[in-house]
Amino acid sequence: MSESMNRRDAMGIAFGACAAVGGIFALAGMKKAWDPLPSVKAAGTTTVDTSSAEANVMYTEKWRGKPVFILKKTPDMVAKATENEKKRDVIINGEHFLVCIGLCTHLGCIPSYAVATQDFLCACHGATYDQSGINTKAPAPLPMLIPPFKLDGAKIVLGEEGEEYTKMKTDGVLGDVPLAV
Ligand code: FES
């Protein structure tokens, strides 16, 4: 074997070894990129303290980039609620709340709450929703969706599934199926 051949082989082996090591580091880097950061996992939930919420005042929180409506109902609203409306109520320390994603189920505009009539109007194409976010006028095809939530005392943790949410799922009132008012 010639000397130049030996040098070429040695360089080839060294180059191959470097490439292999580089590949391992590249894979390790990719693995790191695939794993969600702890801060990203935490960002999946939003905690809302309802202890100072006033009745018939709309609060809008942000969860995973979406508006979430939180509305504490007045005793009158609770008294006149239909069975389907009651099933969608989140009850915290005896008080009834609407918790729903504040996006119209027609094409995704943000409906506005009317304090006087205690219902919602979507100005984009005229859909309306009742005090529990159930669609009452076309073109909205469905109620506003209820996000996964769990209760922690007076706090609502959006993004985690608690037993109250599971019950709503069983009752079929989350907003992913049509509901009669
Ligand atoms: S987006 Fe609300 S009625 Fe069309």
Q: Count the domains.
A: 2
Specify the structural class: alpha+beta
CATH topology of the largest domain: Rieske Iron-sulfur Protein
Approximate helicity band? 25-40%
Shape descriptor: globular
Integer average pLDDT: 84
Going by CATH, the homologous superfamily of the largest domain would be Rieske [2Fe-2S] iron-sulphur domain
Note the quaternary state here.
single chain
CATH architecture of the largest domain: 3-layer Sandwich
Walk across the major sheet and give the strand order: 2-3-5-4
Main sheet: strands, sense, barrel: 4 strands, antiparallel
The number of E-state strands comes to 11
* Ligands: FE2/S2 (inorganic) cluster
Instruction: Note the run of SSEs as H and E.
Output: HHEEEHHEEEEEEEEH
The amount of beta strand, in percent, is 25-35%
Q: If you compute it from the alpha carbons, what radius of gyration comes out, rounded to the nearest whole angstrom? A: 27 Å
End-to-end separation in angstroms reads: 90 Å
Count of runs of 4 or more consecutive helical residues: 5
Unreliable residue stretches:
17-41
CATH class bucket of the largest domain:
Mainly Beta
Description:
This protein has 181 residues and is an alpha+beta fold. It has 2 domains: 3-35; 42-171, Rieske Iron-sulfur Protein. The protein has 5 helices and 11 strands, in the order ααβββααββββββββα. The chain has helices at residues 3-34, 38-42, 75-79, 83-87, 163-171; strands at residues 46-49, 58-63, 66-72, 90-92, 95-101, 112-114, 119-121, 128-129, 135-137, 149-152, 155-158. The strands form 3 sheets. It has a 4-stranded antiparallel β-sheet with strand order 2-3-5-4, with no helix packed on it. A 4-stranded antiparallel β-sheet has the order 6-7-8-9, with no helix packed on it. A hairpin with a 2-residue loop joins β2 (58-63) and β3. The N and C termini lie far apart (90 Å).
